[in-house]
Structure formats: C-alpha cells, structure tokens
Design a protein that fits this description.
heterodimer; A: about 270 residues; alpha+beta; 2 domains; four-stranded antiparallel sheet; elongated; B: 15 helices; 5 strands; about 55% helix; globular
Chain lengths: ~270, ~325
C-alpha cells in the first residue's frame, strides 16, 4: 500500500514531464534503499528501485551489464528492482514498448561499485540498445557526476546511424524546457542549469536532481520516441567556492615567489 | 644535428610526448574512463581530475583506499586481508612500474616535472638570475617535508577520515593541495579546480594552500630548478621500491670525484651525496629523478653510468662532457 502511494506521489510530482514519452526515474522508497544498502554497490542513500514513468503501454525492460551481457528486469506495477550487481562499472537500464502510435524507449545509465569489469564503458555506450537512442558522448567518468553549469555532449542515433537536424528537449524540474538541434554529426551539447533550491553548504548535503532528454523521429508512419534520464548535482563553484578568490590566491602565491627571487638576488649581490 | 643529440634533448622529446599523453591523452586515445587508463597507478603526478588525461597517479587510489577500505578494519571489523587487498594491488602495480623504469617516471614522464622545467627554461630565456644549487643546509631542511606529506597527507589523514576522526575534506588531502590538479585541468580549459572553498575551515585551508602553492611554484620555477619536486610525496613512495628498479644510476668513482662537483651542480635536485666516492655502487638517491644530467656533465670516462639490469646504457665521457657544456653555454647565451 505504502509503495503504491509513493508511486502515485512520484507520478503526480512528475506529471507532464517527458511529454508523454517513457522515462526512468529513481524510486526513493525504503525497500529500494534497503536493497541498495544490501547490495553495497550504490552510492550513499541511493535506491535500487526505479520507476518507468508514463508507461501506459506494456513495456519490456532489461539491464545491460558492464561486460555487455543482459539481464531481464521484471515490472511490479511500473517499478523494477535491480538485482545485486555482480561487478563494478556502468550499467544501462533499457525499456521499450509499442502501441498503435509508435515505439517508445527509455535509457538510464548507472555507475555501480564492485570488482571492475575489463570491458570499456565506451563499448556499452556504443552498443545499439533501441532504434532511436540518445547516447552520452561520453558519459560522466566513474566517480564523477553530471554537474550543473557544465556542458556535456550527446549523440542521437536512429538504427545505429547519426540523426541530423533533429530536435532534442532538455527538461529539469525547475527550469523551462530547452530545445537543442543535432548537428551534421548527429551531435548536440547541453549546459545543465543551476536550478537547485534551498542549497546547503557541502555537496553531500544536497540531493541530486534529475534531467531528462527527449526526442522523437518519424520513419514513414511510425513514430519513435526516446528518452535519456540521469541525475545531476549542483556545482559548488556556483555557491560556496569562489573562483575569483582562487585566481587571487594563485596571484598572491606568484607574488610571494617573486619576493623570494628579489631576496635571493639581493643576497647573491651582497655575497 | 649530431651536435644537439644529447640525453637532455632526448629527454625533452620523451617529456613532451608524455605530457601530451598524460594531459590530453583522452582526446587522442580511448582513455577517458577510469578503466581505460594506462596504469591507474602512475608513479608520477598525472592528475585524475583532468578529464582529458591518459592516466593518473598512484596517490589518488592510495588515499581513497586508506579512507574507504583500510579504515574498515577499525570501523566494520573487516578482515585485514580483504581491507588491504586494493592497496596491495596498487602497491604491486606501482612496484612493477618501478621495476621497469624506476625513478625515471619523475625525470622523463611526469607532466608536472616537465611543466616546471619548461618554466625554468622560460626564466633562463627571460634573463632571470638562476639560483643554481641550493645550499646543503637548505636541502637538509627541505628533504623531510616530502616524507611528512607522504605519511600524513597520503596515508594517515585519509585513514583517520575513514575511521571518523576527521571531516570528509581530509579524505584526499594531498590531491586537494597538489599543483598538478590545477595545472592539468587549467591546461585543458577546465577552470573548475581554481577556487577557494568556504564550506568549512578544512576545505578553506586546503583550497587556499593549493592556490598559493601553485602560484608560488610557478614563480619559483622561474629561477629555482624543480621547486615542487623537492617536496613531492611520489619520491618517498618510489623509494620504498627503488632497490628493485632495473634502471639505476651507478657510480664508479675516481680520485677526482671529491673536487670536481660538476655532477652536483648539474643535479636539478641538488643531491650532494652523488659526489661522494663510490666504487661500482648504485647511487640512485631518494630525491633522484634519473634525469641523467649528472652523467652528461661528468667529465670523466665511465664514472657515472645509467644501467638497466646488467647493461650499461649510457656512460659519462670527456667527449660527452665537452659537447654538453658547449650546448649549455649556447642555451644560456
């Protein structure tokens, strides 16, 4: 009952988000957090449960492991619980569903701790997962995170080939939707907005937010709609870290070095 | 062309190539992700914060292991062997790399070392009076600092952080003050590492020290050779394994060795001990970066030698000395 209420609450909060396309969102229930804690592979306070939002059609989902093997994920209502990760590295959660209007797909990448896998994450991102796919180019590096006020590059592929001049929308909870267009290489870059509220000093004190990239492509009569959803964190340089003071401190250090030079030169002259 | 062919010229080519790889490697090769890095344990200051780098230094995994794994022996009663395994793997890889190239990682491959040498070259060309060798007294005072940094900033503070005695800011304190973090990121156009943090006193102190140290290092490098290398904690870590290194500096001295001191004048780290009498002895000092300048500037045949295992790969000679001093005079104008 509690789980159903939480699912409904999450869905209500995110109503209208994603423009009808399916997308993955973390499910912050106790069960998901307890499972993540048991796995020991997720970050502090993270959940092992994810909800597939806007999933009106029957969708199937699977998990691609860092070694590129696959595991089916089964839905309970619209949620899936990740199995205990057998290795560390990047995982891709993929969901795909069809209805009379077209094909819908959603992808989300997760970086989980564990014994490292020897397959490069480059192969995971390059592996075609759905017909229409938004591919991070590259993903944020392990132990790093998507961060506000920074720019990131993505590729848009349709059936393995770059899709040019196509609109991709970026949505976050507190910034109006922005639209980007892919270039001749099917690439586009976004700058994540600094839209965090009630910010507390120290990054670990602030929960990450979510961004959602959505695109669609019509191939004849058939519509393809795909999303990529990922968490992003605030940028300390927007709040409690001053770059101006940093540059100033470097300059003071440099001046200090020049003073040492003056003294040594004087000392050398005086014998 | 033959006139310019010296160990230093060869070293500059290797350094430049290594610099491009370690600072910009991911733009050329598929080395962006951690798992794709060349060694993930480099015995040189190539920074993990540089998103375009080809590899990163051994000090970052070591600090994280102290903070997150070794500390679990005390906090979660983790089995010692399980908690130490990642550190043993790091040390094992590090030892293997030292076996292959020993301290040449510093003199030939370190991007921060090359950066400082480049600034010194700029200082020379700008006509700034070069300090030459530091006094024995100064060197004796400076030498323990790197051990202090290695023990406290790389091992003890991260371990105490993991146990819970110190705040999170002390989890990787050496990285927080390392000039390579600021240098490599800035050179790739990422200014995010230049900051003063106001999160708390610990973050504030570490970020301020980092910036001041970076500015100071640049200014000092204009007239002092290798200013940061003298306190770099990679040197003590290398020293733990230097005995197994195949590449080494071997001295087979003669009676002139006490008087000439050309080798000490040439040494960018001011290692006075290299002028001491030695007979066929490995004199690779803790501070040595195996740059080879002492071999180049030794005027005696076969006294200073670069050896790789049983092979002598380069020896001092009268001819080599003449050629090197001529080039040095030309360079300094």
């Amino acid at each position: 009952m509690k789980k159903t209420i939480l699912t409904l609450l999450t869905a209500a909060t995110l109503w209208g988000y994603g423009d009808g396309a399916i997308y993955w969102a973390p499910h912050g229930c106790d069960e998901g957090k307890a499972t993540a804690s048991k796995h020991g592979s997720h970050g502090k306070g993270e959940s092992a449960m994810f909800a597939l939002m806007n999933s009106e059609t029957k969708a199937s989902s699977h998990l691609i492991l860092p070694d590129l093997s696959e595991k089916n994920l089964s839905f309970k209502l619209n949620t899936v619980m990740l199995p205990k990760p057998p290795m560390g590295g990047y995982y891709a959660m993929v969901a795909e569903g069809n209805n009379t209007n077209g094909t819908y797909s959603a992808i989300r990448y997760l970086s989980l701790n564990g014994r490292p896998c020897k397959v490069s994450p480059t192969k995971l991102t390059a592996l075609p997962k759905t017909d229409l796919e938004i591919i991070p180019d590259p993903l944020h590096r392990e132990h790093d995170r998507y961060t506000a006020s920074k720019s990131y590059r993505f590729l848009l592929h349709f059936q393995g080939k770059p899709l040019i001049n196509t609109a991709v929308t970026l949505e976050t909870h507190d910034t109006p939707t922005q639209t980007y267009t892919t270039d001749q290489a099917g690439a586009f870059s976004i700058t994540l907005p600094n839209d965090f509220k009630n910010v507390k000093v120290e990054r670990s004190e602030n929960k990450p937010s979510e961004f959602l990239l959505t695109t669609q492509h019509r191939d004849g009569e058939h519509l393809y709609k795909s999303t990529l959803s990922m968490p992003y964190s605030l940028n300390p340089n927007d709040y409690w870290q001053s770059q101006t003071y940093g540059a100033g401190a470097i300059f003071i250090g440099f001046l200090g070095g020049l003073l040492v030079y003056r003294r040594t030169k004087k000392g050398a002259k005086n014998g | 062309m033959d006139k310019l062919l010296t160990v230093t010229a060869l070293r500059r080519v290797v350094q430049l190539t290594a610099f491009v790889f370690f600072v910009y490697g991911a733009t050329i090769f598929a080395t962006f992700y951690t798992g794709d890095k060349l060694t993930q344990n480099l015995p040189a200051l190539s920074c993990a914060y540089d998103m375009k780098g080809g590899d990163y230094c051994a000090l970052i995994p070591l600090q994280h292991q102290m903070d997150h794994r070794v500390s679990t022996i005390f906090t979660e009663s983790e089995k010692v062997i399980s908690a130490l395994m990642p550190t043993l793997i790091t040390l094992g890889t590090f030892a293997l790399l030292i076996l292959l190239l020993n301290k040449a990682f510093c003199g030939w491959l370190c991007p921060l070392g090359f950066f400082q040498e480049t600034i010194t070259m700029i200082g020379t060309k700008l006509g700034l009076t070069q300090l030459g060798s530091l006094s024995r007294e100064t060197i004796t005072k400076i030498r323990p600092i790197k051990w202090f940094i290695f023990l406290f900033l790389v091992l003890i503070f991260p371990l105490l952080t993991g146990i819970g005695f110190l705040g999170h800011e002390w989890g990787a304190p050496f990285c927080s003050i390392c000039p390579s973090r600021i240098m490599t990121t800035t050179l790739t156009g990422d200014m995010n590492q230049v900051y003063v943090s106001q999160a708390n006193w610990g973050y504030f102190a570490l970020s301020l020290i980092a910036d001041l140290l970076f500015g100071l290092m640049i200014a000092l490098a204009l007239f002092v050779r290798q200013p940061f290398c003298r306190i770099c904690p990679i040197l003590p870590m290398q020293t733990l394994f230097k005995k197994i290194g195949l590449l080494r500096l071997v001295k087979n001295g003669n009676s002139h060795c006490d008087t000439c001191s050309n080798c000490v004048k040439a040494c960018p780290m001011d290692i006075y001990e290299i002028q001491d009498q030695a007979e066929n002895k490995n004199i690779t000092h803790t501070d040595c970066t195996l740059c080879g300048r002492c071999v180049e500037f030794c005027p005696h045949d076969g006294v200073m030698n670069f050896k790789y295992g049983p092979l002598t790969i380069y020896s001092s000679s009268k001819e080599g000395f003449k050629k090197r001093t001529k080039i040095d005079k030309w360079w300094k104008g």
